[in-house]
Design a protein that fits this description.
Elements: H1 5-24, H2 32-37, H3 44-55, H4 58-70, H5 76-92, H6 94-97, H7 107-113, H8 115-148, H9 152-200, H10 204-214, H11 234-250, H12 253-260, H13 265-299, H14 312-320, H15 325-354, H16 358-365, H17 371-396, H18 403-427, H19 433-453, H20 461-493
Helix pairs in contact: 1-9, 1-15, 3-9, 3-12, 3-13, 4-8, 4-13, 4-15, 4-18, 5-11, 5-13, 7-8, 8-9, 8-15, 8-17, 8-18, 9-13, 9-15, 9-17, 10-13, 11-18, 11-20, 12-15, 14-15, 15-17, 18-19, 18-20, 19-20
Length: 500
């Protein structure tokens, strides 16, 4: 079933409008600080909105209701861990980012472990973000194929082309303010969707609670059992979710770049903590929509037998929403994909340009860069944005599994090593570069082993990877230091050849 022509016009108008808004922010760009950090001029509340919009993607909006449609509200336990993780970032990691003139998270690693480890950390981010974003972009194809009846390839090309255009032109300032507009739209749209859904269910809220309760577990939030194979328990949510958030929001350039765009550490702290409250509200709404779709489907089935549950929300929007309102809500879902992709593009460009070139990084952090060096850096940044846009588009053509959990699993595999590296540099003063590298290799190898040979849920991967990285890194640093000291002592006892 295709979208009504009026709704199609709304979707197209919105996509073109948000692209024009992003391109508007090209004005006034003079250097890398303007392009990558928006001149550090955005208010904290806008950064909070941008953080939420960045961590929320199309696969979140269509994947979260699919989880509660097929299961219950237990995913919310992971969100409690997201809140706890933000507090830990404020206490452990955030102060370090404001002790220097940093453009990327990995400049902090160079200060602690040297330029080689900065490149290792940045390379880990680039690979992880590109693949994870590819999973998210593939979610666009699901929505647009339902809405427009186009091929999935055409959907990815269309949306990514517009996203690349306004990110290429507008930089971080365009990313932040288009994020604000898109967040307001999709939060409003989600609330309206829940309201319309309850109105379409015969019996309304009473029927909602009665059918959900009769299903046995649809409204269950807490699971106090302790099973490493269970994805959503209170313990995997609080502990695993906290470590996942520390990795994604404390070491991943995509979010850290927003924090670095704050006017000062206080604004960065307020933005990060406020974003946690918004995330809790939005995931509660998403999960309730999923339960509502389950109840609605008992009266009017939406999915054909064997059809993917990720299609449940787009199908409801197209089939059941009033004309006009459906277009606005579908536009918000697609626009979230643009918002998320634009943030990733800007952060990927920043890391690839600044973390792998000492000369360009020096030009960016110089208090008085020459006009020529500023122009060259700005040009290189735009070209890097274009290159990464093509890479993400290619990843978007790949066919992935269940979207939300696939995206989280892909991100969780290497992020534990990255978080362990940052914790090692922050907490252990005796750690060195050799130990840090050994720890990262051990952490990644351990997580890959757990993935391949055990049934441990993905929610524990970051905890396992970061703890392994930290412990191995700390031990190897001390071993390497002791061996070096012993070698120096032995060499001092050997007499020169002439003295024998």
């Amino acid at each position: 079933m295709r979208i009504h022509p009026v709704d199609l016009a709304i979707v197209i108008a919105y996509l073109l409008g948000i692209t024009a808004l992003g391109m508007h922010f090209r004005r006034g760009q003079r250097n890398a600080g303007d392009y990558f950090l928006g001149g550090r001029s955005a208010p904290w509340w806008a950064l909070a909105f941008s953080i939420v919009a960045t961590e929320t993607s199309t696969l979140t909006i269509i994947g979260t209701p699919a989880i509660s449609y097929a299961g219950n509200l237990a995913f919310l336990q992971l969100i409690f861990g997201y809140l706890f993780g933000r507090v830990l970032i404020v206490l452990l990691l955030l102060p370090g980012y404001f002790r220097g003139e940093y453009f990327t998270a990995y400049a902090l690693i160079e200060k602690r472990f040297g330029s080689h480890m900065r490149k290792v950390a940045a390379g880990t981010f680039l690979i992880t973000r590109a693949i994870a974003e590819g999973v998210r972009i593939s979610a666009i194809a699901l929505v647009v194929s339902v809405v427009l009846g186009t091929s999935e390839t055409a959907a990815v090309v269309l949306v990514m082309a517009l996203t690349i255009l306004y990110t290429f032109e507008g930089g971080m300032k365009a990313v932040i303010w288009t994020d604000v507009a898109q967040l307001m739209l999709y939060l409003t749209g989600s609330a309206v969707t829940l309201f319309v859904l309850l109105h379409r269910i015969p019996g309304g809220w009473g029927e909602f609670t009665q059918v959900a309760a009769a299903a046995g577990h649809k409204l269950q939030v807490f699971d106090f059992s302790f099973h490493l194979a269970a994805k959503y328990t209170l313990w995997s949510g609080l502990i695993g979710g906290a470590f996942l958030t520390m990795a994604t929001h404390g070491t991943d350039q995509t979010i850290v770049q927003r924090l670095l765009s704050a006017r000062n550490e206080k604004d960065g702290r307020r933005a990060l903590l406020t974003s946690g409250v918004i995330v809790l509200v939005q995931f509660t709404v998403f999960l309730l929509i999923g339960v509502g779709l389950f109840v609605f489907a008992q009266h009017s089935p939406l999915l054909a037998p064997g059809e993917r549950t990720d299609r449940i929300l787009p199908l409801f929007l197209v089939r059941e929403m009033p004309v006009g309102l459906a277009g606005l809500l579908l536009a918000s879902v697609v626009a979230v994909a643009m918002s998320n992709a634009s943030g990733s593009l800007n952060s990927l460009a920043a890391s690839s340009v600044l973390d792998f070139s000492r000369r360009l990084a020096g030009d960016a952090s110089s208090p008085t860069p020459s006009a020529e060096s500023s122009r060259k850096l700005l040009r290189a940044s735009r070209y890097a944005t274009l290159l990464w846009g093509c890479v993400l588009m290619a990843f978007g053509f790949v066919k992935w599994g269940p979207l939300l959990e696939t995206g989280l699993t892909v991100a969780a595999l290497p992020l534990g090593s990255l978080l362990g590296l940052f914790l090692l540099g922050t907490i252990d003063r005796r750690a060195n570069a050799s130990g840090a590298l050994a720890g990262m290799v051990a952490g990644l190898a351990t997580v890959l082993y757990v993935l391949r040979y055990t049934s441990v849920a993905y929610t524990w991967y970051v905890l396992i990877g970061s703890c392994t990285t930290f412990l191995v890194g700390a031990m190897f640093s001390r071993m390497a230091k002791n061996n070096l000291a012993q070698g120096s002592e032995k060499s001092s006892n050997v007499k020169p050849l002439e003295a024998r």
